[in-house]
Write a structure and sequence with these properties.
It is a single chain. This protein is an alpha/beta fold. The protein has one domain. It has five helices and nine strands. The longest helix is centred in the C-terminal third of the chain and has 14 residues.
Length: 145
């Protein structure tokens, strides 16, 4: 997978890669069935349907993710725009843009983002994953991506 950048810190001969974010909040545009698959690979995830937020506004979803420390996972580009306009650095967002979004492809894309962009996600970023590529854009408290 080609990346525009990645992060990690090296102490002596050891590479330290931060742990994954605590939980994911899956947008209504993703299939609820991937929650079980993500759970089997050790990723904590909850779907908006489970929270009764399937029809919630993007602003309400962002607030829910911010309060719980979750990373939003979506197909929707609007979350990144909303965060830029708000000037907030949290929550981070993973945008999955796959031509054929099968369950296994979605899970693989999410795992890749969590593994390769962990530092970005922890500090506030919009991570876009597509076939064979990943782009990380830091969120700025000043409101610029």
């Amino acid at each position: 997978m080609r990346q525009e950048h990645e992060r990690g810190t090296r102490t002596g001969n050891e590479l330290h890669v931060p742990s994954r974010p605590q939980s994911l909040l899956l947008d209504a545009n993703l299939p609820p069935s991937i929650v079980a698959t993500l759970t089997t690979v050790g990723i904590v995830a909850v779907h908006l349907n489970e929270l009764g937020l399937a029809d919630a506004s993007d602003e309400r979803i962002v607030e829910c993710a911010r309060k719980t420390g979750a990373v939003i996972v979506t197909h929707d580009l609007d979350f990144g725009r909303l965060l830029v306009r708000s000037g907030q650095k949290a929550p981070s967002v993973i945008v999955v843009r796959l031509r054929i979004p099968t369950r296994s492809a979605l899970v693989a894309a999410i795992e890749a983002a969590l593994t390769l962009a962990v530092s970005d996600l922890q500090s506030g970023a919009v991570v876009t994953v597509a076939e064979g590529t990943m782009r990380m854009r830091q969120l700025s408290a000043a409101g610029a991506l």
